[in-house]
Request: fold
Amino acid sequence: MADEKLLDDVLRRAENPGPALEGPGARLGTPWLPPAARRRLSPAVHSLLRTGDLGRSLTERGAPYGGQELRDGGKTLELSTGAPGAVEAQFGTSREPARPIVPDDVPDELLEEIADRIGDYILEGLL
Reply:
């Protein structure tokens, strides 16, 4: 009976692996600057960090400006944001350099980390 429950749990998580890539525990890649380092940034950069909307839109389900999609058959994984300042951060402006949120190419190491995180969630329920 216990084996059936474990198998049912694995199958349930496999149907919706999304939680493996959500929330602050799901941070992958290079983290945002710590608060002490942010104080040394220009005022224009502070406006991107002040509200936290940009970070939340990329890490919290249902956050304002956020968008996410995870499909099975079409093998689609999409994470998007419409937060104010996101385009300026990604591409830069005439006054500020680009601070890409989404890289042009996702490094193999990051793809492996994502795959490992999803696998750990599906098989063991680890977040």
Notes: The two ends are 25 Å apart (CA to CA).
